[in-house]
UniProtKB/TrEMBL annotation:
Residues 9-61, 62-116 form the HTH myb-type domain. Transcription factor. Keywords: DNA-binding, Nucleus, Repeat, Transcription, Transcription regulation. It is found in: Nucleus. This is Uncharacterized protein. GO terms for cellular component: nucleus. Pfam families: Myb_DNA-binding.
Length: 270
DNA sequence: AAGTGTACCAACCGCCGAGCG
DNA sequence: CCGCTCGGCGGTTGGTACACT
């Protein structure tokens, strides 16, 4: 026979995790590590499926998670990777330490996809949206000189210039401008994708002037990677500080744990 | 103030490849 | 080799918060 079943679905809890459940799961994993997800809920005292525990850990409880908004640089990189890899979110996420595939997928679906559409880019193909072609071609014809110049030098300076010129046109809608710019890049030797990467910052600033990219929250990268080392040696003050930062971030995000001091002292700062 | 629409994101669902027995 | 489960993945859903009318 094969392996034992992952879990008995009957009687298992579903839905949002409580602070107590998070506490149990995190305490168990930090104490015992992860050998088999099927056994985790059993030994951690949770009425959850192992799969659910895994998801909760990976997407929310993992100490090396980088919380906070995506930076523009990260967004640009996501677009670039998506153009190459498609919806392979885990592959994309592997380029972003501390970010989860779920987080990137959500960000793509709620933010980036919308912006690309406004820019006249098909988020699936990263090509210019077909029906924008007429607008674009009309605009492009009137910009022949600029087009030629752009083709000649193969740079994105022309499109960037077009962006700023279009911005000054009050009777041209934002979407039209974006489409025109997008097509402008298509008609040149520059691909839509390259155009997007080069001008994304300019355009997104205009599309969402209210957007404020908050600085990333405290980066706790590597803290978990070094967790075992620091918890065993405990002689490294920097390690202790790093772990302490993680604990504080967890406390911030999960309110108060009744046993956080217990975990803190026994695992990290002994 | 209440109702409705929209955005966001945590969590679930179902599929698939790898691997165990 | 086969039957089966696990772990991982991508798609989707549902709940909540916020914005708008």
């Amino acid at each position: 026979m094969g392996r034992q079943p992952c879990c008995e679905k009957i009687g298992l809890k579903r839905g949002p995790w409580t602070i107590e459940e998070d506490h149990k799961l995190m305490t168990f994993i930090l104490n015992n590590g992860i050998q088999c997800w099927r056994t985790v809920p059993k030994f951690a005292g949770l009425l959850r499926c192992g799969k659910s525990c895994r998801l909760r850990w990976i997407n929310y409880l993992r100490p090396d998670l980088k919380r906070g908004a995506f930076s523009e640089m990260e967004e640009n990189q996501i677009i670039e990777l998506h153009a190459r890899l498609g919806n392979r979110w885990s592959k994309i996420a592997s380029h972003f330490p501390g970010r989860t595939d779920n987080e990137i997928k959500n960000h793509w679906n709620t933010k980036i996809k919308k912006k690309l559409r406004l820019l006249g880019i098909n988020p699936l193909t990263h090509e210019a949206i077909e029906k924008k072609q007429d607008i674009v071609e009309n605009e492009s014809r009137s910009q022949n000189d600029r087009d030629q110049q752009e083709k000649d030098d193969g740079s994105v300076a022309g499109t960037a210039q077009l962006v700023s010129e279009l911005e000054s046109k009050d009777d041209f809608t934002l979407m039209d401008k974006a489409a025109a710019v997008s097509c402008q890049s298509e008609s040149s030797s520059i691909t839509t994708h390259q155009y997007l990467i080069n001008n994304y910052e300019i355009l997104s600033r205009n599309l969402e002037p209210q957007t404020c990219y908050s600085p990333s929250s405290i980066s706790l990268e590597d803290s978990f990677r070094h967790l075992n080392y620091y918890s065993t040696t405990s002689s490294s003050s920097s390690g202790s500080v790093q772990v302490q930062q993680w604990i504080e971030s967890v406390e911030d995000s999960m309110m108060l744990w009744d046993g956080i001091d217990h975990i803190d002292h026994r695992l990290f700062l002994s």
